[in-house]
Amino acid sequence: MSLHTYMLFVGASFVLCLVPGPDMLFLLGRTVAQGRTAGLCAALGINLGAYMHLLAAVTGLSALVLASATAFTAVKWVGAAYLLYLGLGALRSKGSIAFPVGDTRKKALRLIFWQGFLSDVLNPKVALFYIALLPQFMNAHDPSPVKHLIALGVTGNMVGIATSIIYVFLAAQMTSALRRNRAISSWLTKAMGALFVGLGFRLATEKI
């Protein structure tokens, strides 16, 4: 793999990260409603999920899932149901869901981290990215295809987490004043719930 090809992949990964997808909207929803720390936890969870997709792509699991209509549909519906569950939970909450201090805050942040992780892992479209895009930047006669596949995947994930962190900091800065108002904070929580519900319906109706 030449340096030119590698840089093309970096550029393509960056452009794709700029396109708002379910993961990006999830972390932005958390950031806007609950602040920078919540957004960062969501971003880290999503990034860990991306590494699980990379592992699945390297081992061939992603290809098996995408090749099977039944497996793809099952993963898609589980992911959609999970997003709907999160959205309805936020819509039913009373007031804002800002974090308290102490151990309760730590538990809430860990929960957001794993929610981000599951949101990414249960999105079959992410698996499609790894098995469809990455091979386009590899030579058919590459003597070390697995090594280069991993290198591209790790690079894409690093671009993804860097982009996510930038989005989180910008969104948190722009909405910090809104979260200090209890009424607006409560409205932001409901808006986040509606966003998650919308993402769930969107994922449920998507096709390969």
Number of strands: 0
Low-confidence segments, ≥5 residues, pLDDT <50?
none
From N to C, what is the helix and strand string? HHHHHHHHH
Number of domain modules = 1
Global mean pLDDT: 77
- Helix vs. strand class: mainly alpha
Please report the distance between the alpha carbons of the first and last residues. Answer: 29 Å
- Backbone shape: globular
In this structure, how is the largest beta sheet organized? Answer: none
Summarize the amount of helix as a percent range: over 70%
Q: How much of the residues is beta strand, in percent? A: under 5%
GO cellular component, one term: plasma membrane
Protein name: Threonine/homoserine/homoserine lactone efflux protein
GO molecular function, one term: amino acid transmembrane transporter activity
Organism: Paraburkholderia eburnea
